[in-house]
Amino acid sequence: MHIHLIGICGTGMGALALLLREAGHTVTGSDTNFDPPIGPALEAASIECMRGYKSENLEPRPDLVVVGNVVRKDNPEAAAAETLQLDRTSMSDALRRMFLTGRKPLIVAGTHGKTTTSAMCALLLERAGFHPGWFIGGVPKNLPSAAAIGEARRKLIGSSAKLGPFVIEGDEYDAVYWHKQPKFFDYVGASQQDVAIVTSVEFDHIDIYPTVEAYERAFSDFIARIPEAGLLVCSAHDARLTALADAHARCRVVYYGVERDPNTGVTPTWIASPSHEEGRHQHFDVYASGVSLGRHSLKVSGQHNVRNALAAMAACAEGFAAPIRELRSSIAAFEGVKRRQEIIGTVNGVTVYDDFAHHPTAVNETLLGMKRRHPSGRLFAVFEPRSATAVRNVHQIGYESAFAAADRVLLAPLGRANIPESERLHLPKLANAIGSKATVCESVETILNILQGELQMGDVVAILSNGTFGGIHNRLLEQLRARS
Known about the structure:
The protein is an alpha/beta fold. It folds into three domains: 85 residues, 3-Layer(aba) Sandwich (Rossmann fold), CATH 3.40.50.720; 240 residues, UDP-N-acetylmuramoyl-L-alanine:D-glutamate ligase (3-Layer(aba) Sandwich); 142 residues, Mur ligase, C-terminal domain (Protein-Tyrosine Phosphatase, Chain A). The strands form five sheets. It has a ten-stranded mixed beta sheet, with helices on both faces. A hairpin with a 2-residue loop joins strand 17 and strand 18. Helix 1 runs parallel beside helix 2, helix 7 packs across helix 8 and helix 11 packs parallel to helix 12. The longest helix has 18 residues.
């Protein structure tokens, strides 16, 4: 089957292309750029990459066209596919029809932590011998790729055949321009025994959800779609989420939480009790239904990652009967996901992290975790507001307390220029609210100059952005090397 992807270099679309190629299909794709790491990975998989969007890219005529959600109706290639009446679909629908059918999905949704939690789930099931497939919106360090079909482990039961589970990150962003519904709607209900995790519900993606109510409705509808025979693993620390689960879940709900989490009126079945940090490891005790499951450890920092680990273990144990002893050893081996608290270099005693955090809650949790791991050095937070939500003032107040753990805060210019002034995040006002430790910077060069003058041995730099941030990561490392 010849399958053509329009917008193939997006994180999800690139992973889908590799999955389709692994499944034996002929895959082609178009985009404006084929930058690393996706571009070289596509070429290495013998996928024909076409630069630019034009109708000629649809020759020879493909059997199926997958249109990325960044592609608009006036895209010349998308318009030609519609005119030619080619079979076309979205990324999420292609995943459902080609990789979820006949399998038991584990869908990981939520505003925060879904990439890390998805990677944890895939690793836990893989090491427990379930041979899962997976589709993750990041690059897990313990797994060979961001997406895999998994071994088609078949058990004959009568005349039916069952495949291994499939872990999929459930994004609430819309699927494609003609189907403006969340992607995770296409994943849920693929079987009658879906397992779903929802980590949190906190207003995001203001470009497609104009109100808090609209955003929360997407999650309430997702929860309601989980079949009665399915399972919802749900964070107990989020009052909005517990209310949605209570009102809309038809399936069994298992709550998880960390000791001393806020009381939201529900009692968690799975509880983690943080103990101490030792070197790269944070230790915590786990209890399920009041029974001790022993002491666990985790290499990635932050209480939010303890919560993510607890969610993954609960889903694998309750939804797939994975043995606890396997889960304990596997979660201790979890190395994390690239661009999530990833150390990209330590030069002359200065440690530099790259992190995707851009929502106030994620910024706060990430910086708290880094400060706890590096208590003696100063923590520099370098923040680029770039996402459609981050550049707007919807979280102006939230950002004021998000940087509390940092000793120094450098605020980069907004990553988008087309935002009405009345809606923009006001950086001078934010810096004033944070206090004297915050500086609004005119450019990446300004940030680098400040870091050059202030960084000392033992300091830690957290670069927070969901984009490339003008190449600041490598430029800073080069600057530190040159300084020696």
